[in-house]
């Protein structure tokens, strides 16, 4: 994307913002932090464009800014992540299916935004993650990637292949992914087509809502895993729950404690069928799922209120 240096940055915003956000979000797993970094990138672009020396490739230049700021952020946040209370899950991107005008909608249809995929990326170092995403997801060539991350093209090629091997092999020290039974074949592409996947999740949600423990168990893989992210801010399971029977018991227990004003609706969560629950119209929980073969292999539950800030409230008839 070669542009005249006098082109107003706000004219570039509609075309560049979704790309930069998708990169930053995959790097960080946080929509709020991704938006902050993208805004910083546009401020840096404005500053650079005000100088006499033109930017030859604004797309590459802006991706470089976002990539480097994400790497710096991940390095500074490493200690904070290490003391996070309970399992860490990425902040969900939620779209109601009739919201086709959502600016992030088409990016949420990409399998590389699924919760399972984002968790697999967590086993990579920040630089490996950047190289892998730029090459695998955004199809940037190695010369451009090298300029973005300050490495040689040969080193970037090596980093990419190492990152891909790491994800495909799921090494033993990637405990969270391994325990969840997450394999790239399920994280990247479900063997079920979209309609089958939606039907399976819808049936599970119906079973959950009706309290049918036996029906829930029939749709769970025997070695399924449930993760609940409360971030120490609200009550949540601080350890993963393993096995279909224990997951069913846990979910049945949640159902028994449904508060007054509870409601729910199905939605797209990171591009795959999921569930949002509400209390008096305010988002309280987001569920997403990973499917392996024709069973649910993992359930991800987000109750951390900080990660629900972007989820739209439910409009209640009568304004109650």
UniProtKB/TrEMBL annotation:
InterPro entries, alphabetized: ECF_Sigma-70_Domain (IPR052704), NTF2-like_dom_sf (IPR032710), RNA_pol_sigma-70_dom (IPR014284), RNA_pol_sigma-70_ECF (IPR014303), RNA_pol_sigma70_r2 (IPR007627), RNA_pol_sigma70_r4_t2 (IPR013249), RNA_pol_sigma_r2 (IPR013325), RNA_pol_sigma_r3/r4-like (IPR013324)
Residues in RNA polymerase sigma factor 70 region 4 type domain copies: 116-166
Q: Name one Pfam family in it.
A: Sigma70_r4_2
Gene3D superfamilies noted in UniProt: 1.10.1740.10, Winged helix-like DNA-binding domain superfamily/Winged helix DNA-binding domain
Query: Which domain of life does this protein belong to?
Result: Bacteria
The RNA polymerase sigma-70 region domain is annotated at 12-79
Q: How does it assemble?
A: Interacts transiently with the RNA polymerase catalytic core formed by RpoA, RpoB, RpoC and RpoZ (2 alpha, 1 beta, 1 beta' and 1 omega subunit) to form the RNA polymerase holoenzyme that can initiate transcription.
This protein is called RNA polymerase sigma-70 factor
Q: Which organism is it from?
A: Paenibacillus solisilvae
């Amino acid at each position: 994307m070669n542009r005249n240096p006098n082109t107003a940055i706000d004219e570039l915003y509609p075309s560049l913002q979704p790309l930069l956000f998708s990169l930053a979000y995959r790097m960080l797993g946080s929509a709020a932090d991704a938006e902050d970094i993208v805004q910083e990138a546009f401020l840096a672009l404005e500053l650079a464009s005000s100088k006499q020396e033109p930017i030859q490739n604004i797309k590459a230049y802006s991706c470089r800014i976002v990539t480097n700021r994400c790497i710096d952020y991940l390095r500074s946040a490493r200690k904070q992540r290490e003391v996070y209370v309970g399992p860490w899950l990425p902040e969900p991107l939620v779209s109601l299916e009739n919201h086709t005008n959502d600016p992030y909608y088409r990016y949420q249809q990409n399998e590389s935004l699924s919760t399972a995929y984002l968790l697999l990326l967590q086993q990579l170092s920040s630089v490996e993650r950047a190289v892998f995403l730029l090459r695998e997801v955004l199809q940037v060539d190695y010369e451009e990637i090298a300029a973005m991350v300050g490495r040689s093209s040969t080193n970037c090629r090596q980093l990419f292949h190492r990152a891909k091997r790491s994800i495909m092999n799921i090494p033993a020290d990637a405990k969270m992914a391994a325990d969840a039974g997450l394999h790239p074949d399920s994280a990247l592409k479900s063997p079920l087509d979209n309609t089958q996947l939606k039907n399976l999740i819808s049936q599970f949600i119906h079973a959950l809502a009706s309290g049918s423990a036996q029906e829930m168990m029939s749709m769970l893989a025997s070695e399924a895993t449930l993760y609940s992210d409360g971030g120490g801010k609200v009550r949540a399971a601080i350890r993963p729950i393993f096995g279909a029977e224990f997951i069913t018991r846990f979910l049945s227990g949640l159902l028994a404690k449904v508060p007054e004003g509870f409601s729910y609706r199905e939605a797209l969560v990171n591009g795959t069928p999921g569930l949002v629950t509400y209390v008096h119209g305010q988002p309280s929980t987001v569920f997403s799922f990973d499917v392996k073969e024709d069973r649910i292999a993992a359930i991800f539950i987000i109750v951390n209120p900080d990660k629900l800030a972007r989820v739209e409230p439910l409009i209640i008839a009568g304004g109650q």
